[in-house]
Structure formats: structure tokens, C-alpha cells
Amino acid sequence: MCGHSSGMMGFPLRLLAREVYDRVRAIKGDDAVALITGEERIEPPGARYFLCTAEAMDRVGGGHSFVAVDEAQLGADPERGHIFTDRLLNARGRDETMILGSATLEPLVRQLIPRAELIERPRFSTLTHSGSDKLSRLPPRSAVVAFSVEQVYAMAEALRRFRGGAAVVMGALSPETRNRQVELFQNGEVDYIVATDAIGMGLNLDLDHVAFAALTKFDGRRKRRLTPAEMAQIAGRAGRHQRDGSFGTLTGGGSRSGAPLEFTEEEIYAIEEHRFAPLTHLFWREAEPRFDNLATLIADLESKPQDEALKPAPQAIDLAVLKRLAEEPIADSVRGTGSVRRFWEACSLPDFRSVGVDTHARFVARLWDDLREGYLGADFVAARIAELDRVQGDIDTLQGRIAAIRSWAYICQRPDWVLARDEMAARARAVEAKLSDALHARLTERFVNRRTTILMKSLGQDASALPVTLEPDGRVTVEGEPIGRLEGFRFSVDPDATLADRKMLLAAGERALPAILTQRAENLLGEKLDELEIAKGAIRWHGRALATIVMPADFGEARLDFAREVTMLPDAARAKLEAGLSAWLAARLEPLAPLRKLAEAARDPAAGSEARALLITLIEAGGVVSREKAGLEHLPKEMRPFLRKLGVTFGALDIFARDLLKPAPRQLLHALGLDRRPLEPAMLPVLGEAKRLPAGYRPAGSQVIRVDLAEKILRAAFDARSKANERVAKGDAPEPRKARTGARFRLDLALPVSIGLEEDNARRLLGSAGFRYHRARDLAEGAFGPPAPDSWTWRPRRAGEAKRSREGGRPERRDEPRKEGKRPPRKGPAPRDRKPRPARQDTGPARAGGAFDGLADLLSGKAGK
Question: Considering all CA atoms of the chain, what is the largest pairwise distance in Å, rounded to the nearest integer?
């Protein structure tokens, strides 16, 4: 055609016309080429080459230099045959006319066009029958042919499970959707295509094998077996040009009677040798009927041909609609030649929705009610198009909308039906394209598992060649499709994968796992060491345990028990990772050096059993132990300097290693699981009331205070008491009334208040160490001058005072004046005789609180209950 000055070609399918239109446009340019179909019209003013569907082409050729009709053997089709017969008989070019079709058409062409020159183009490739195959064993680049929507969907679902998916081609799909699905197959995204017999007409595919899921189909009137020519038309999709192909059947696709699905010997011979029975007739219908009235029109359309090679066409849906409406009152409105012609054009509207004669006739009747008065309004058509402009819904819903929008696209293409025709046609095409894209997406989503398809292609390849990629967020992908996730060094299959896919995904992941884990280990040791943490007794990365930390008794070099996923690393990478993590851990455990020093001293025989016992108790307690639990009564005084050199502080209430009260060692002890008490990471001086006593703290009324600061406050109190006693000894102060308590002294509470301890809680802390608070008496009435200062006294606790030790110092009551003389007689029974108690020696701060009964509950974590 491109060798002539002008030309026109008629095709059986809209998508074929579009395909050739694109090829001719690339040669001749956009302005010289036109595309005309029932639903689309692209016609530049200077167009010289026209690509059309058979129905849309000029029936006599339009005066073009070249005219061609493709697939002319469709003249034997009961539904559309009369169109192709008319073009074969009447469409002619000025210089050349080509009728393209099967060899079965040759006798009829010789009979109808005696002067025609017949040229045969033999098939370069051969077709071979390969017998029956299971669906799961079909070779790649295969097509499965079925003849019902249900069977097509079932086959596509099965291929999705077995092979990752398949493209779907059916006559009910829009041409755009069919093209997109074919493109999915041609690009290699899937290796299989499931189709109806629509695949046999005009689809050029890179197929190696065609498998028939059925050999019978419903042709609109009855269910019949395919003819050998129809079988060959479909099987011929396999093998193109010089590449051979094969065809066969699917195992298990037999008839209801249980007969196996297989070709007969005659059918196999006919397909392989390409020898078929010639056509005996073509269908014909009057192409130029008279439009005097409806009766004359119907009579002409039902007239019989004159040539014996032609047969009257079976009643098509356009004639059936015309006859149905001619019997209804609507026929009274059809008067005159122009009105009859216009009514026949309305009845010729294709039944894109496949709803049958009755429903389609009602639609045509409504259309005629609007057309007989003139044109369809643009607003009305735009509203109908907008109603269909919705991409929500399943496959069947979208197919229904596409069929409806194709009807409106056809209506908008008519030259005298719609106002603002070009604009409405453009809107209809845009909505059809949008719905086709949505339908393609639904089909792909339902019938294609791209991930499985990629993995199926890679089966049998070297694992190092598998295109597996580790994404920055931990996803493991194959050519962009996720197959799982790497958390730490543990690979887990994508949770969205189906049960059938999990085994394949796991195998693919494990094949590529050594290389991925090596890369992961290098990244960790190179840039991501800061992301590691010690928690719950293990080294963790993003919450995933890499190795459990086992601390030895001497707190020396820790041992690492690596997780199972780390052991999956190659030997060299695993050794490098273990060395790197061990070095990192050694640096992180440096704050525990004081604890390691205590452990070394506990193993020293020179320390003595008493000191070693205290050190072991201190180590097990995490560096802090109350005096009640320390067993100081067994420790010789001469061993205390030895322990103080190790950083051990002998406080009035607690024994502790001061270096272990810093945040870093306390956090490490908690992270290693060596201290189960609650953690205060910042080790603040004073905290509010806690339900459980944090590590390194002791209670002080309604607050808790760090033990080293509590010791600092108590030490200041003992210093103030010592100075008061010195003044008494020098005679600078009066003798105390009770020798056991010593002199009264003043105590400034500015220190505990400055670190956040409330005054009342500071008094309670001091009271727990034996200090007693005495509130000064108020000035007498009428007296002037500054009030007397409050005072304190101290004495060791006795066993019966455990309860009061929790309450702290209690001031004397102001409403109880001191009485001279003897104490008033005791109420109740007389006291029993008891032996005189030996006088206790005041040993000062070193003995303070050494045997305070009742503090065990406070210091063992029960203080909050």
C-alpha cells in the first residue's frame, strides 16, 4: 500500500487496524494516514492512506489507488460474513486490489472473480502435535485456549499458582486492554497467556506452544466441535516466520462423558500439513437496500443472492432489532426515505454489551426517541459518559462499563447524531482508555504474580547470578519485587506471599543469603556500629538479638553466644563479624572496670575470708548493699583501709562502690541483666516516690535519694554532732542531760534541700540513721527576741525502735511541759524485774546504724509497699 499514491485497507479487528495504522504513520507521517473504526475516527484533512475495520471502510474502495481486504475467509462467518463478502465483491482500487485470506477461500474466489491472480505464501515454520500436557508442566511461551470466561479465569488462576501468572485475552475485553495484556506477554513479564479463540485472529505473538483446554465452543446457536480450519487458525499462533511451533491439549480437559481431550488423526494431519476442506459458500446480504419504508427495507435485507456460491446471511442482530421494532408503535414515527435510513443506522448500533436482541432493542428505541427530533444534546451525552467514568469495581463491573462506553463512542462517531461530536468522541475515548487501564490493572493483579514469575525464570541459575538486592530498609527484592525482609541477619519471607509461594521464596532467599549476609556484615562493621545496643543480656541490632552476652564470674572478657542466623554467614565473614563485635563489646564494658577490680580482689587470698565475703556480697548486689546485709560485725577493722583503696565506702546506712553509682555502669548492669531493680538512667540526686526502689537509691520519706548523696548528708550531721561534743568537752557548752545522746547540736538542712530533698524528708533520712529532731519552744507570751533554734541529738538504735526508725526523728510535743521530780507511776501491771543493761560505748559515726533493726524491709525493695 505504501508503494501507491493512496490506499485503503479493511481489517477484521479494531486492534489490527490500529497496529497497521501506527506502522504506516511511521512511514508516511501523521498528516497522511487516517484511522477509521466504529468507535474511533482519526482523519487528517490531507489523509491519503486509510486503515479501517471492514465495516467502516468504503464498500467500493473510495477511488484509492490500492485497496486490500484482510481475512476475507470471514465471509463464511454467520454474524459478520456478509460484510466481508460485500468488500470482496465490490471494494476495488484504481491500480491494485488485494484479497488476503486462507487457502480455503481459493475455489470461491475463482468462481466469483475469474480474472483474479492467485498467489500463495507458504508457511515457513512447521507445526507439530505434542500430545497432552499437564497445566503445571507447560513449557514457557505457551498459550492456553479456552472457550468460556469461567474456564479462562480458572486456567489463569492455576497458572498464577504454578508459574507466577498469565496474560488474559478475551473478545469481551476492550481492544486497549487486550493490547496491554498482549504487551505483558510480549515483554516477557509473564511466560503464559490464556485466551479464547480471539487469539486466532490478528494477534502476532512470540508463542512456541498452543494448548487447547477445550475443542468445542458455543457459536451462538449450539455447542459444536471446532473445524480443522478453526483449530489451525488458533494453533498457527505458535511458531512465526522461521521458528517452529507445537500444539496439543491439556490433560484433564475431557468432555462431560469422561472422554479424553485429544485431536483425531485427521485433525492432526490437516493442521500439520495445512490441508483443509475448501469453503463451499459465503454469506451475502444486500448492501444497498431500498429505504422507501420499513417493509421494503426488511424485504431487501432478507432477499436471496443470485450466485450459487453465495447464501443468505443468517439474521444478524441489527436485522433482528429492526424487525422487532418494526412491530412496535415506535415504527409509526418512521416515515420517509431519510427517516427510514436514519432508523436503520440506529438499529445497526453494535451490541457491545452482548445483552441480546430484546435488551438491545430497548436501548435502540430510547436512542431513536432522541434522534428522530434531530441531534443528541451535548449535555445529555456528556452526562451519560460521566456516569461511566468510574474505575472502582471488579473485573466484570469494569468490562460492563467498557462495553457501555464503547456504545457511546460509536454513537459519538456518527456524523449527524451528536452535537459537539468531536468533543464528545474525545471524552468517550478518554473514559474508555481510563477504564481499560483499570481493567488491565485488575487482570494483572488477579492473574499475575510478578515475583513468582521472576523466580521461576531464575530457577536452575547460579545463586550468585540471581538478581537479589538488599534495600536500605531491609527489604530483599528480586528485580524490584519483594521476596522477604532481613531483620538483623534473619531472613523472613514476605508475609503477603501465599502458601504455595512461600517455599519458592524461601529457597530463593536462602540461595542468595550468603552474599547478602556478607554484605550486611560489612555494612554493620563499617558504618552502623553506632546502631548496636546492649539490652536484655544480648547485643541487639534494631531490636534483633545478634549474640547473647555471657559474663564470667570475674567480669573479665565476656563470651558471646551468637544467634543461629549469624552462623549462616560464610566462614570468613562470620569470623570477621565475631571479632568486630567482641572488640565493640570490650569497649562498651569498660565502665564495669570497678566491678572487675572488686572481683579480682575477692579472689586474692590476702584479702581474708571476711573481706572476701563482703566483696562477694557487694558484687552480687551490684555495688550497693545496706549495712544490715553486709555482715560488718565479722569484718576486722584493719581490713577497712584495704577495702577503701578498692573504692568501697562504709556509709552510715549503706556500703557501696562509689564508681558504680555513675549512670554508665548502672545502665550496663541493667542491660546485662545483672541488676533486676528499676533503672534510673541519669542517676539523678533525688527522685519522687517510687513503687519499686531503683538501683543505687534508698528511701527518704516520700522521696528516694542516691546512696552516696545520702551518705554526704549524714556525714555532715555527724560532723556537726562531733563539734558539739568537742565544745562540751572544752567546757564551752553545758553538759547534756543524757550521756548516751550527747550534746544537742544545730543542723543546717541547706545541703539536702539544695539537692532536691524536702525538709521533712531530710529529717526522716536523718532519723533513719539515729538522729532525733527537737523543735524549739515558741517564745512566751509577751516575750521579745529571736526564737530559739531547733536542735538535734543522736543515739544508736535499739531493737525495739525499728518501727520508729522508719518514721524518722520525732520532735517533742510543745503542749507537754517538762516535769521536775520522779516520773509518774506507770499504768498497768508492774514491770518485771530485769537485769541491768550494760552501758553501751559510743563509737561515733563508724558504729552508727550498724545494727538498726527494721531497716531490712526499707533497703530490700519493699519500702514502696
Answer: 157
The per-residue pLDDT for 385 is 92
CB 61 within 8 A of CB 51: no
Helix or strand or coil: residue 704?
Answer: strand
Give, rounded to a whole angstrom, the gap between the first and last alpha carbons of the chain.
100
Low-confidence winner among 16-30, 446-460, 660-674 (lowest mean pLDDT) = 446-460
Distance (Å, whole) CA 757 – CA 283: 108
Q: How many CB atoms are located within 10 Å of the residue 324 CB?
A: 17
Which of 218, 252, 273 terminates a domain? The answer is 273
CB-CB contact of 769 with 653 (8 Å): yes
- Model confidence pLDDT, tens digit, residues 343-377: 999 999 998 888 889 999 999 999 998 888 788 88
In DSSP terms, which residues pair with 655 in a beta bridge?
625, 650
CA 501 to chain centre: 16
What residue type is 422 in one-letter code?
A: D
pLDDT range class, residue 260, cuts 50, 70, 90: low
Q: Residues near 668 by Cβ (< 8 Å), separated by ≥ 6? A: 534, 588, 589, 591, 592
Report the pLDDT averaged over residues 787-795. Answer: 84
- CB-based contacts of 426-430 (< 8 A; 24+ apart in sequence): 427/382, 427/385, 428/39, 428/385, 429/39, 429/40
Last residue of a domain, one of 59, 91, 123: 123
Q: Determine the pLDDT at residue 617.
A: 87
Give domain status of residue 72, yes or no.
yes
Please list the helix, strand and coil fractions of the chain in percent, rounded to the nearest 5, in that order.
45, 15, 40
Number of residues assigned to the chain = 865
Residue 21: the pLDDT is: 93
C-alpha 70: how far from its chain's center?
48
Q: What is the mean pLDDT of residues 553-575?
A: 83
Is 80 exceeded by the pLDDT of residue 248? yes
pLDDT surpassing 70 at residue 858: no
| 131 Ramachandran zone, left/alpha/beta (phi>0; psi -120 to 50) | left
Of 117-131, 659-673, 734-748, the poorest mean pLDDT is in 734-748
The 3-class secondary structure across 340-354, one letter per residue, is HHHHHHHHCCCCCCC
Give residue 78's pLDDT. Answer: 87
Is residue 106 domain-shared with residue 140, that is, in the same domain?
Answer: no
The answer to whether residues 138 and 96 belong to one domain is no
**CB-CB contact of 718 with 712 (8 Å):** no
Structural domain total, the chain: 3
Query: 198-233: string of b/e by CB count within 10 Å (b at 16+)?
Result: bbbbbbebebbbbbbbbbebeeeeeeeebebbebbb
> What domain range is 265 assigned to?
127-273
